[in-house]
Amino acid sequence: PPESAEDIAWSWLGAFVAICVVAIMNQYLTPEVDTPLMVASFGASAVLLFGVPASKLGQPRNLLGGQVFSAIVGCIVRVAFRDAVPQLLWLSSALGMSIALAVMQVTRTVHPPGGATALIAASAHSMGDWYGFKLVLTVFFGSLAMLVVALAINNLPRRRRYPTYWLGA
Asked: Is 162 in contact with 156 (CB distance < 8 Å)?
């Protein structure tokens, strides 16, 4: 059956507020902490957190673990290929994303946007500060902010409950 207008409204509100919070952090804290706080894969995380809040793929463990593990893996792979880029950027990209998927499966933290995060890190033309590992902080704090919004907004309507689990399942 199609989504109800009420569910669509709650999904919209949650995604809007979550991305607003991260965007505000990005705009006002980035100059202070000298690292961007917005990653494109947060848009896909918002779809899972608010569009399908009961999905296993959007639970707190999956959101935080999947995003952070993937950022770490992507950065490690990119550092390993630092002298071979741009000639082997294609290989760095494919390895970063696919290894991140394997790590998410092993740790039971599969979160599809994490694959995008790993790809962003592993395919970067330049590594940036800390050999690109500032991305890990960006992903952690942005994901944490989105989780706080999801905990608040997804539990306002009676028909929604978030999370369905924290560590199990």
From this structure: no
